[in-house]
Amino acid sequence: MFLQVLVKREDQDLQRIGWAPTTDAVPVDYRLNTVAYGTTCAPYLAIRTLSQLVIDEGVKFPLGAECLKAETYVDDTFAGAEDLSTAVQKRLELIELLKLGSLQLEKWSAKHSDLLPPQARQNSPKEIDGDALVKTLGILWIPSQDDFQFRSADVEELSTAATERSILSNIARLFHPLGWLAPITVTAKVLMQDLWIQKCDWDSPLPAEFRKRWHTEYKSLTQLPPLSIHRWLGVASSHVYQIHGFSDASSRAYAAVAYLRIDEGNGRFSVSLLTAKNKVAPVKMVSIPNLELCRAALLVDLLCHVRKLEFLSSLPVYAWSDSQIVLKWLRKHPSHWKTFVAN
Hints:
With about 350 residues, this protein is an alpha+beta fold. The chain is built from ten helices and twelve strands.
């Protein structure tokens, strides 16, 4: 995509390179006329170009324009619709809109084969039937079931010479941007905090106590059974929605989670997990009531983040707490309380 974005003539000299076809040849001076992959500004310029395309031509293709604005992440588009005909129309508009910017969509995958363009059905590099997995936005997706799936972390082999650096590297391999695996990763975060408190060297072998704890964490990560989460939330224009948030705290960590409650009519309800977030407790000793307040604050931040999504922005929100102390603190003006609670 970057090579389709032209750089202004006066800025092209900033992308000069010298190239020699052989080691004994005189280097030839070249000027790159388009955005070079790997430059710091490349992702921004790509996103800004798509935004300008929507501004210039989006009125002709409303569904395609909305898809570029709300369902495209740099050069990956992840979109859907309430019915097949709308989805096909969105696909057609998106293709035509991008053509006006000399851009072409590639590497198609879809739950329904009718959503694939004819050329994608013939030349698709992936077989999407059955339970085949597609990696999209860093997460495994099963098109046939429309499920996201998480599998055992791709961690390195367990070693007696495990270090703080290798542990952090292995924990980071379990990618879950919406916090769906927070219950699994929180104990590993606590372990990392304890290593930091003990001032263990990044590349020195761990003490026996921490090696044993890491062995337990390693088993929980590598023996994690396949976990599937349905991508579609059940959103339909005829349904009624509410956002509900919960939080909890312990002496070592606290967390918050947001759910979408769906009233499908005729007394039928369903609940979908939206997102979650956890944090380790501060190193400095904090009372449990104060940690309960921290988890309430985390929940509010999480719910505010969720409501930034356009289709969730107008929904009623319910934040739940089982801590009477926190509820009492929240009901009074901050000036009544000491600094920690007031802030």
